Amino acid sequence: MALLEIENLVVEFQTASGPFRAVDGVSLKVHEREVLAIVGESGSGKSVSMLAVMGLLPWTAKVTADKMAFNGRDLLKLSPAERRKMVGKDMAMIFQEPVASLNPCFTVGFQIEEVLRVHLGLDKAARRARAIELFSAVGIPDPAERLGHYPHQMSGGQCQRVMIAIAIACNPKLLIADEPTTALDVTIQKQILDLLMRLQAEHGMGLIMITHNMGVVAETADRVIVQYKGRKMEEADVLSLFESPKSNYTRALLSALPENAVGDRLPTVAGFMVDEAPVAGAAQ
């Protein structure tokens, strides 16, 4: 049984000019201990798809699906209270822009301990001990001291490690990482990716990696879904995708890698691939 199974997910937002379909019939599965990468340019519906799974879209968004099941439970039939008990505990998400995702008014220690209080019911001493353990596990130096720091007192890389510690605090079965290395320098990016892959292997989590970076895909993924304009264009195991892409859009993404630059000119992807259609079977 798949850990997460989605069939024909559609997400629409109301705009001044009418409904806008941000996600258009996306289907996917992810299993325990598997790393699934969802790749595509900005605006392709990657993050919106996963925010719909987490139940974190605004109430104005219209979310429909033929199936949306996590660990055998129908997410579409859960009450808001049941969904809140699951989100942050059984499935968790690392958001883009870690500094913006953390509350600037509270210490990072308070924010991780709050997760442990709400979902695990730990007392104050146990929460602090677990928070120190988690900060140590994600490589934050002097973890006991760092608990008393506010987000602005920490670097971007340290804030990202705090976000990862919060996400894994309750040992989730599924972890969604949304552009986890955005705005970090190359050295820190490598450290964060290595950390995520180590934690995924140690805890046996299913991991969904949302990215527009094909290098991250090559380094981390077992399978890859390529999205474009809200639709799933192609799905393949990572080696097949790089060696024999079936979709014109996938080929365009791969041709735009920096190593294909000519002189000082970087390759680009066409703004609108109007005639592009999903590869046969991609929606399954």
From TrEMBL:
Belongs to the ABC transporter superfamily. PROSITE patterns: ABC_TRANSPORTER_1 (PS00211), ABC_TRANSPORTER_2 (PS50893). This is Dipeptide transport system ATP-binding protein. It is a peripheral membrane protein. It is found in: Cell inner membrane. InterPro entries: AAA+_ATPase, ABC_Ni/Peptide_Import, ABC_transporter-like_ATP-bd, ABC_transporter-like_CS, P-loop_NTPase. Pfam families: ABC_tran. It comes from Neomesorhizobium albiziae.
